[in-house]
Amino acid sequence: PLYLRVFIKSKIITTLHELQHPRLLPFTDFLSKLNIFALSFFSHRVILTSEMQYMRIPDLYGLKSRSKIIPVGSNIDFFSIKAEQKISLRQRMNIADDETLIVNFGMIRPDKGLEALLRALKGMIMEGYKVKLVLAGARPKDYWDEYREEIFSLADKLGINKQVLELGFLSEKDASFLLSSADMSILPYAE
After folding, report:
1. pLDDT band at residue 77, thresholds of 50, 70 and 90?
2. Tens of pLDDT along 6-23?
3. Is the distance from CB of 114 to CB of 147 less than 8 angstroms?
4. CB neighbours (10 Å) of residue 83?
5. Residue 24 has pLDDT above 50, yes or no
6. CB atoms within 10 A of CB 107
7. Cα distances (angstroms) measured from residue 90 to each of 46, 95, 102, 108, 109
């Protein structure tokens, strides 16, 4: 952005999306903030995707006057699903009629709060609720095996591993069907 602003004399608009990131290295948070600052400082306008970003980023970097919130819409088209298709889908996943189907959908990463969701699921089960959690989304190769082990070790430790199902990446149509068949979707970001 600095080069474009100084030498090309272009107007720069930066969109900040998915500011959370896996904390793989101790300095990742610092580098992330430095990168956001550099992008934002040299931009004429900054587009944020949520109220949380608006409240946090402008306070840190003095960007309120140049910031605008444009919420991210769903990138999953709606595909109509019939009642018998919902029943069939739930049966294929071994989800009983009296069980609540909770879906966690999106790229599966350490900053998405799955640990908190698993603990909440355990609490629901302890209260007598019949629930199943389906994890559906892309699994980044650079850390997936290790993170998957952490998640399923926690589920095992909590005694809920039979209530957690991993589907991985889904086509747009399958994702639409799954979300339409769910009783609820929970996306508990860590921050």
Report:
1. confident
2. 777 778 888 877 655 444
3. no
4. 8
5. no
6. 11
7. 43, 5, 11, 22, 25
Bridge partners (DSSP) of residue 132 are 101
C-alpha–C-alpha distance, residues 166 and 137, integer Å: 9
Distance from C-alpha of 93 to C-alpha of 1, rounded to nearest angstrom: 48
Question: Roughly what angle, to the nearest 10 degrees, separates helices 51-61 and 28-41?
Answer: 80
Q: Return the pLDDT at 22.
A: 43
Instruction: Please check whether residue 117 is in contact with residue 188, taking contact to mean a CB–CB distance below 8 angstroms.
Output: yes
| pLDDT higher than 90, residue 106 | no
Confidence category of residue 59, pLDDT binned at 50, 70, 90: low
pLDDT of residue 96: 93
Asked if residue 175 lies in contact with residue 76, where contact means CB atoms within 8 angstroms, the answer is yes
- Token pair recorded at residue 85: 């298709």
Distance CA 186, CA 117 (A): 8
Number of H helices, E strands in the chain: 7, 7
Distance CA 131, CA 121 (A): 8
In the numeric block, which tokens belong to residue 119?
A: 């603990």
In the structure encoding, which two tokens stand for residue 182, read together?
């769910």
